[in-house]
Amino acid sequence: MNNHYDVIVVGAGLAGLSAANRLKEKGYSYNVIEASSRTGGKVQSVQRPKSGRSFELGAQFINPDMTELMKWIERAGMQLTETATPADAVSMIYPAKELSSEAIDEHEEELADWRTDLQGDDLRLSDLISRLSLTDTEKQAVASSYAELINLPLDQASARGVIELMTRYTSELEDSHQLNAPLADLIQYMTNTISEQICYDEAIVNIEETASGYRAVSDNHSYEADTVIMAVPPAVASKLTYSPALENRYRQALNSYLNGSIIKTTWVYDDPFWYDYNLNGDKEAIMDVVYTDPSGVTVVDSSKQGDGYRLTMFIGADAAIDIAKQSSREQMETALNLLENVFGSPARAFKDAEQSVWVDEPFCGGGYGAAVKYGGIPDAAEILRTPHGPFAFAASELAEQFPNHMEGAIRAGQAAVEQVIKLKNQQ
Ligand SMILES: Cc1cc2nc3c(=O)[nH]c(=O)nc-3n(C[C@H](O)[C@H](O)[C@H](O)COP(=O)(O)OP(=O)(O)OC[C@H]3O[C@@H](n4cnc5c(N)ncnc54)[C@H](O)[C@@H]3O)c2cc1C
């Protein structure tokens, strides 16, 4: 197969789908090459045939400030619904059974100050957290939250890289909403308009320069275009080989990233037993739990109106890497034991459950996304999002706003199209 296109888009996650849709709008010829047999990447839903109940295996929560995602939701005729949590629900640190403090909420400001203090130096994220002016329990809670949020073992994560990543999450709002339908329906909507231009089960392994642009090569085929958009997470993109000019330009930045690791488990209940939790003698509704032992584990109330009561556990970083070595049955039991530790035997009275493991995933990488490792270039995202001639990377990690979220992926895809088209037209 040897067709020539204006643009080859590698990867059909949200970044690739958003890039392809923009190319179609602008009237460019394009071809999307996807390694797996489906679109959506880290957005994936499953639906039970009998009950019709659906679960999000990957992305789920939406912040109404995610404006590009909101435009797609509107175009698809879908709506947001607020996660159904009691108004007075609290956040708890476990096993200390302490409420999350204001100091914890404000730690990001202190982290941001460290950005200036560190200047050219870097620290391991674990070292930086140990320097925050918080109590020991608060530090452990912050460390656990980052292990869940960044999904990288904290002693392997670059403090400057993580601060840089956090500053690109520009909204003050929480991601407290969900779609009123499976996210797979939105992915299907985005896929439908470009479906005739997607090649499935084709993993690109090499990008070569040609006289008129680039050649993207898989084990079986090669695809030629004036322009390539690599809509693949950076740690996954680092496994490919590139033309000497691209290697020169991007190799160090690509190798700066490490994949995250996350295990997500959701249980459905008839009874929301966590609305009536005995917290040191007081009855409290629990909105979320941050475990300090094991670190990197959180539980959130993920209930949607009219869709049963749900709890979702995220196990990140070291804990996820360890648990991923267990059998699926053991993984489910490990998560349930952790839930039972907090809520007791009612945790076992679930009527349905689902688990997904995003550890060392060959094409999506793992975790919510990748992050810069200690020893990597803290500003690697900026290098990677700057095109080299008509070649650009686009993945959620690189987005100027909302990286490692769905919104970031959509924005990264759009930005890559705008940039490469401008450069192509200048040639
Ligand atoms: C468990 C979990 C929970 C999350 N929760 C949220 C949430 O609540 N809210 C939120 O906004 N975000 C959330 N995220 C993050 C969000 O899903 C991602 O940021 C976003 O979907 C990433 O999109 P992407 O297109 O950049 O990358 P991906 O989704 O990783 O897509 C990359 C695509 O490229 C393909 N590919 C890779 N290599 C090749 C190759 N060599 N050749 C061809 N194709 C290739 C892959 O198969 C894949 O389809 C979550 C993620 C996970 C895993």
Overview of this protein structure:
50% of the residues are buried. The protein is of the alpha/beta class. Strand 11 (213-218) and strand 12 form a beta hairpin. It is globular. The protein has 14 helices and 23 strands. Strands 1, 2, 9, 10, 11, 12, 13 and 23 form an 8-stranded mixed beta sheet that branches. The chain has a 7-stranded mixed beta sheet with strand order 7-6-18-19-20-15-21. Bound molecules: flavin-adenine dinucleotide (FAD). Residues 10-16, 33-36, 41-43, 58-61, 175, 203-204, 231-233, 236, 262, 264, 358, 363-364, 368-369, 395-396, 404-406, 408-409 line the site of flavin-adenine dinucleotide (FAD).
Into how many domains do the coordinates divide? 2
Annotation, overall tally of beta strands:
23
Distance between the termini: 27 Å
CATH class of the largest domain: Alpha Beta
CATH architecture of the largest domain: 3-Layer(bba) Sandwich
> CATH topology of the largest domain, which one?
FAD/NAD(P)-binding domain
Bound molecules: flavin-adenine dinucleotide
Tally the helices.
Answer: 14
| Outline type | globular
Q: Average pLDDT across residues?
A: 94
Beta strand %: 25-35%
Structural class: alpha/beta
CATH homology-level superfamily of the largest domain = FAD/NAD(P)-binding domain
Low-confidence stretches: none
Any idea what the radius of gyration is? Answer: 22 Å
Please give the share of residues in helix. Answer: 25-40%
Report the sheet with the most strands, covering strand number, pairing sense and barrel closure: 8 strands, mixed
